[in-house]
Design goal:
Blueprint (H helix, E strand, L loop, with lengths): L11 H25 L2 H8 L3 H7 L3 H23 L5 H20 L17 H21 L8 H20 L12 H14 L24 H20 L2 H7 L4 H7 L3 H24 L5 H16 L17 H28 L7 H14 L3 H4 L8 H11 L6
Helix pairs in contact: 1-2, 1-4, 2-3, 4-5, 4-6, 5-8, 6-7, 7-15, 7-17, 8-17, 9-10, 9-12, 10-11, 12-13, 12-14, 13-14, 13-17, 14-15
GO molecular function, one term: DNA-binding transcription factor activity
Protein name: Transcriptional regulator, TetR family
Keywords: DNA-binding, Transcription, Transcription regulation
Length: 409
């Protein structure tokens, strides 16, 4: 772990000031991203000079890692506090309940904000390695919560890892949307999330089809600009804003840097275009499904399969929503508004399903957030399940949300 610039046995005053710095930094990094928040911003928040901040954390990246490590430690602690429950279902329920309790304490001002994980990819390798190692350990603790026994074959292990990724992604993703509710309602929101993850969406009359017909393919002729957008999306997902340089994007396409600037004014414009490309893919797929035949359940399954399948296709992936933090503030607000509108479209499929009896009665608003979160998290599935592909991703990742996280076990 990276060492802080301080004496071996810090004083109480030192610890209090360090915690205040971490509190302010997590809040600023969540609002502005690693690119937008500076050490000067943090210093101003806590009433110190920038030079005083460097006494605690020499570089901004050191401070980011410290914030991430504190959040990872807290979530790992929640997992450990849950592990004593006798059954996996009870562990999931308690894990989510404790996590939302922690979010409520942030909302009421009792505890500082948890740091979003979106900045891990924006870190230099030496810092990212430290954060990813801790994140992986936390992931393994959460995966153990889902086990009733030791998986006996590779398929069971893959399903378990996929379910753990789903649980962690959707639970931690609540940090981005839970503030729309009153803090006193967080326990009820947690209960709704638990209900969805344990019981899925399907009514008793609906069945999961592992080989459906009628899922609309997503395809588009690839122009040179489209190729730039695809390569940029891949690199932004893999390496974050800093890693997706003009040189790397051009090299991935075997083109010159001059060709990059022939097609793109600058990197921010390219990222904005990557968002617009993603929005067009989601919007077109939603419209095709909505205007087609079938029940609400059929349509929800079809759109989820189409978009998750796109993540693994030659034209994919979709842009990870974690890149929002790298955008200029006005652009970030605009792109987040569009994404929220497209996410709300999933509500229509859910409502139709409840009207025609193919989807059970549930909170459509929270359910649509889980669908959107699952589709976004699918881009990371190969990190935890190396054999994930377009052929098995639906059974590995969509089914556990739509039928319940233990439906494949």
């Amino acid at each position: 772990m990276l060492k802080e610039t301080a004496q071996a046995r810090p004083t109480r005053r030192y610890v209090e000031k360090r915690e205040a710095i971490l509190d302010a930094a997590a809040r600023l990094f969540n609002r502005k991203g690693l690119r937008g928040a500076t050490l000067s911003d943090v210093a101003q928040e806590v009433g110190l000079s920038t030079n005083s901040i460097t006494y605690y954390y020499r570089k901004k990246e050191d401070l980011v890692v410290a914030c991430l490590m504190r959040t990872i430690d807290e979530i790992a602690g929640i997992a450990d506090a849950t592990a004593g429950e006798p059954l996996p279902q009870a562990r999931v329920r308690r894990f989510i309940a404790l996590f939302f309790q922690r979010l409520a304490r942030t909302a009421t001002g009792e505890r500082p904000e948890l740091m979003s994980f979106r900045e891990i990819r924006s870190l230099p390798d030496t810092h990212a390695d430290v954060a990813f190692a801790a994140y992986t350990d936390m992931f393994r603790r959460i995966r153990k919560l889902l086990r009733s026994d030791t998986p006996k074959d590779p398929a069971q292990r893959s399903a378990l890892s996929a379910a753990a990724h789903l649980l962690l992604s959707l639970t931690s993703g609540a940090m981005t949307w839970v503030e729309r509710y009153e803090p006193e309602d967080y326990p009820k929101v947690a209960d709704t999330v638990v209900d969805i993850l344990l019981n899925g969406f399907a009514s008793p009359s609906s069945q999961w089809d592992s080989a459906p017909a009628g899922t609309p393919p997503i395809s588009k002729a690839e122009t040179t600009q489209e190729a730039f957008l695809r390569a940029a999306t891949e690199l932004l997902n893999e390496l974050g804003y800093r890693g997706a340089s003009a040189d790397r994007i051009s090299a991935r396409l075997n083109l010159t840097k001059g060709a990059f600037y022939h097609h793109n004014e600058n990197k921010d414009d390219l990222i904005a275009a990557c968002f617009d490309r993603m929005f067009a893919v989601i919007r077109d797929a939603q419209s095709k499904v909505e205007n087609g035949p079938g029940t609400g359940w059929d349509k929800l399954c079809a759109i989820a399969r189409a978009l998750v399948g796109y993540q693994f296709s030659s034209q994919g992936p979709l842009l990870r929503l974690t890149i929002y933090g790298a955008l200029p503030e006005e652009m970030r607000k605009e792109k987040m508004l569009t994404m929220n509108r497209l996410s709300a479209r999933f509500v229509r499929f859910l409502v139709q399903g409840m009207q025609d009896g193919s989807i059970r009665a549930l909170d459509q608003s929270i359910a649509s957030l889980q669908v959107n979160g699952m589709i976004n998290a699918a881009v990371e599935l190969r990190r935890w399940v190396p054999d994930a592909s377009g052929e098995n991703a639906a059974d590995l990742f969509i089914r556990p949300l739509f039928l319940g996280i233990f439906s494949g076990q």
